[in-house]
Amino acid sequence: MNKVVGRFAPSPSGRMHMGNLWSCLLAWLSARSAGGGMVLRLEDLDPDRCRQAYCDQVMRDLEWLGLDWDGAPVYQSKRTELYRQAFQKLEQQGIIYPCFCTRAERLAASAPHRSDGIAVYDGRCGRLTAEEREKLAHTRRPAWRVRVPGEEVSFNDLLQGSFSENLAQDCGDFILRRSDGVYAYQLAVVVDDADMGVTQVVRGSDLLSSAPRQIWLQDRLGLPHTEYGHLPLLLAPDGRRLAKRDRDLELGRLQEEFTASELVGRLAFAAGLTDRPDPMTPQELIPLFSWEKLPKEDFTI
Ligand code: GLU
User: Of 22, 63, 18, 49, whose CA–CA distance to 248 is shortest?
Assistant: First the structure.
């Protein structure tokens, strides 16, 4: 079997919180316990939200925790040319179309939200005639969508078992490039994972429903598939999903109270890798890691 290569793919739009640490620790343990590599990619595509200072902070925080990576960090903001090439490949397949809908129109044009909050776009801009497009092009800059087939995409998740989605029904045509020219996460992630030799994607289960889109894009672009492991989410004490605004569980705040080993030890205990929440280093956890031990349900820490 090929060597496992895992990745950290944080979005540097603020300080990491407990949920990010959880994903980073387990992604690292999964790769390192298999004798594999680990790469770091800073997902700083959105110029409005991402800052170099946050990127630096993410790296300091990973180091503080005792999580290392191989090679130089990769910045998505510097890889536009690669995304452009992939986008062009899809354009040549005739499956990209401009979408002139405003945000409000997009919502109105969407089927009721799915359980994960993603709306299914009804594809209306994909049915515009050439004249209609021409006319609308004078009024505003379009976003660009990819037309998806009514095809079932299935995969076997390391933790969640078999998962499948019918792209047309469950997802709808999705955006690959925003109207301000920024390439979308779904495209960038697929291009980058392949380019960086990533074989294993370990991340929160909030991204489980992105995997079928990414697998389908890998196929369209002739890129290899990766393995997926979607982790249960850490919930805020009131049961909500953790967000960057939950300052109490932000790393800066946690560092006032805990050492790195104390935090890692608590996460390892929550992961079922140890039977007490005692301080542990990531290195010490390597021999204890196994996918079978991990919980499948979201939980509060
Ligand atoms: N950058 C994404 C995040 O921080 C993760 C993307 C991924 O793992 O595919 O939520």
Answer: 18
Find the 255 Cα to ligand 1 centroid distance in Å.
23
Regarding the beta carbon of 19 and ligand 1, being less than 6 Å apart is answered: no
189 touches ligand 1 (CB under 6 Å): yes
Task: Give the number of domains in the chain.
Answer: 2
CA of 203 to the centre of ligand 1 (A): 7
Q: Does residue 291 share a domain with residue 258? A: yes
Same domain, yes or no: 71 and 106: no
In-domain check, residue 182 = no
Quote the ligand 1 centre to 45 CA distance (angstroms): 12
As a whole number of Å, the end-to-end CA separation of the chain is 36
- Are 132 and 172 contained in the same domain? yes
Distance CA 163, CA 161 (A): 6
* Burial call 16-41: b when 16+ CB within 10 Å, e when fewer: bbbbbbbbbbbbbbbbbbbebbbbbb
Query: Domain ends where: 116, 142, 177?
Result: 177
Query: Separation of 9 CA from ligand 1 center, angstroms?
Result: 5
Q: Looking at residue 131, which CATH number applies to its domain?
A: 3.90.800.10
Structural domain boundaries, residue 116: 82-177
Report the C-alpha gap between 273 and 275 in whole angstroms.
7
- Indicate the top mutation candidate among 7, 22, 23, 43 to test ligand 1's pocket, ranked by most ligand atoms within 8 A of CB: 43
Q: What is the chain's pLDDT, residue by residue, as a tens digit (301 residues)? A: 579 999 999 999 889 999 999 999 999 999 999 999 999 999 999 988 889 999 999 999 999 999 999 999 999 999 999 999 999 999 999 999 999 998 767 666 666 555 556 678 889 999 999 999 999 999 999 999 999 999 999 999 999 999 999 999 999 999 999 999 999 999 999 999 999 999 999 999 999 999 999 999 999 999 999 999 999 999 887 888 777 667 768 899 999 999 999 999 999 999 999 999 999 999 999 999 999 999 999 988 7
User: Measured from the CB, is residue 148 less than 6 Å from ligand 1?
Assistant: no
